[in-house]
Amino acid sequence: MGNGMWRRGRLSLTITITAFAQSPDRGRGLARDMSVRWALEEVGQPHAVRLLSFAAMKEADHLALQPFGQIPTYEDGDLTLFESGAIVFHIAQRYMGLLPDDEGARARAINWMFAALNTVEPPILQREGAMLTERDKPWHAERLPMLDGQVHDRLAALACRLGDATWIDGAFSAGDLLLVNVLRRLTTSGLLAAHPNLLAYVARGEGRPAFQRAFADQLAVFIGTEQSGQP
Length: 231
Ligand code: GTB
Description:
With about 230 residues, this protein is an alpha+beta fold. Helices cover about 55% and strands about 10% of the residues. The model has no long low-confidence stretch (mean pLDDT about 95). The site of S-(P-nitrobenzyl)glutathione (GTB) has 13 residues, from helix 4.
């Protein structure tokens, strides 16, 4: 640890990711580095984490890696990636443990990765955005049920597909990892309560040792920030 760099495992790490030095989620593991951390833990790849302030994220050094000035990024030798979904996909393709070998099962797992980010997450983000920025607007109370309804429609369809299965399509995959991470954004909304199988699905994901390690690592960043007395 030092100079904003947190290391796990041996000294000669090739993989470096970026994360918030001070995450606005206050250690709840809701920022998008969490998917990447979790994926790296699932496949057992040690990695370094470079912590960035909001100002540093907008500076040229970081913009060269992430054109939108955001976290997370992924560096491994000559390869630099941004977009958490693409990073998780790369990790899943490169290392064993997150995608099945069978061609069809692999394609379906990838299908669920896209569904998590392109179909399930958008209405969740819409609602989250409204809760963050529109609560004081006169039309908020009228709009919220519509946004809740859109989230509910996605959750109902997902709950129906999951049924009483442990994971969405056979063994745990990168599809489950992204789905669980997307659903975690709803934990304080109460909207998951209508779907006990989805609540149990999220709990199963969060119960995985790899998730626990990833969560502990990002929580340690928050605790370190608190103890250092930074705002
Ligand atoms: N599509 C990109 C990806 O998936 O990698 C989106 C990356 C992104 O949104 N990064 C956010 C960021 O860097 C952090 S994760 N924001 C700073 C900026 O744009 O200037 C999004 C996030 C932020 C905070 C919470 N939270 O407080 O709960 C949750 C999620």
